[in-house]
Amino acid sequence: MPDQLHARVAAFLDTQHVMSLATAGPNGPHAANLFYVRDGLGLVWVSDAGSRHSLDIASNPAVAATVAPDTAEHAAVRGVQMHGRAARVDDAAEAQRLRAALAERYPFLKELARAPEALRSAFAQVAVYRLDPDDVVLIDNSRGFGHKERLMLRREG
């Protein structure tokens, strides 16, 4: 069952493109919507190291994220909730691998090679971040109102 749930979570994440990342830092809670790519069940994105969510992660790596399509029908509500730890990817080779995965998922990133120098330079300066989840919940109201399945990836305590 955990392998099947893992596969269903991965498949769902692959159909979506934007996550809402929640962080907490010195100025309190914060949420940001970000493009992501899935790496295992980890979520990867690029961001300015000076953005509020990036600064929050630097001071407190505990984060939560949601991914869900927009719908007005209760039976169509589906999504993933997760919490875990996020960090900047400082290993150059790993950051390059993850940037390539993002560019593969989002063609506009491949087109940056033909973009004006200022835009290429700005993108080259953003940092790569990764959320490694401890706990993942798959929500699927098509299987019953409030239907949830939980995948524990790391033991608590």
From TrEMBL:
Domain Pyridoxamine 5'-phosphate oxidase N-terminal: 6-128
Protein's name in the database: Pyridoxamine 5'-phosphate oxidase N-terminal domain-containing protein
Cited PANTHER family: HEME OXYGENASE HI_0854-RELATED (PTHR35176)
Pfam families the record matches: PNPOx_N
Keywords linked to the UniProt accession: Oxidoreductase
Keyword Oxidoreductase: yes
Gene Ontology molecular function terms on file: coenzyme F420 binding; oxidoreductase activity, acting on the CH-CH group of donors
An example Gene Ontology CC term for this record: cytosol
